[in-house]
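Question:
When you can, review this sequence-structure pair and walk me through the tokens.
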Amino acid sequence: MKTTVKRTLSLLLAAASMASVLTACGSKDTSAADTSADTQAASASADASDLGPVLTRIKESGEMVIATASGYMPYEFVDISSANQDVIGVDMALGDKIIEKLSDKLGVEVKKKVEDTTFTANLAAVAADQVDIMLAGMSPTEERKQNMDFSDVYLKAEQRIMVRKADADSYKDIDSFNGKTIAVQKNTTQEKIAQGSMPGVSVTSMEKIPLAVLELTTNKADGVVIESTVAQPYLIANPDLVLCDAEFPEDVRYKDTAIAVPKGNEDFLELINETIKECQNAGLIDQWIDEYSSIAAEQNAG
């Protein structure tokens, strides 16, 4: 009887000991799994926190919202031959390249969403962080830098005055426009140049360049202050228009063009600048200017 009791106690102790070992092992494995999961979650969180506000927004939404103002050929204009009336041009082609790089960096397929309004509305939208990027053939002025950040310059152009060919001989210098009417796009560097460097002129400000050019072709204006790159499609499409010989002062004659983003997005600007450099080195910017100037001229002539 004593032997049986002892044997029973021994079996119970052995079973308890084994249960303890198994429980300890199970606890250890669960803890390790939990620790691994926590580490992965922390790592993912750290990756997300490394992104600035705009890149975070783009990654979460899967789209890059572009503010632009079509009608500024060859930078951006409506492709009237497309079923959806898509906005195309130099800026949109550059935007596509930025999206390619974004997709690689963020590990998601980024799509393009274009908010096509007016230049004035574009400025307000990017300053208020309502869009991700502004691609609108814009000059990075000191005044604008107070409300938004700019990329490196991707294109340089000369400020010129477009006139009717029949009147070109009358405009040899800026003073020749004294008493004349000049049309410009509203809230642009061209508007400021006309107001500040053309004494004695009356300035008519329009929301978009085509409207300013219409003022010229319908004899409501005597000239249009326009950058040389933007003038190309109009000159190709309309042989009755030319750039006159008058030149602006050196300090306002040339225009830098850059991309704007909401303030506080250095990582996004770095990616944009990398894209700009790659496109410039590959000769794509000049290629796009020729390509889209021809397309715009053809559509404008039609």
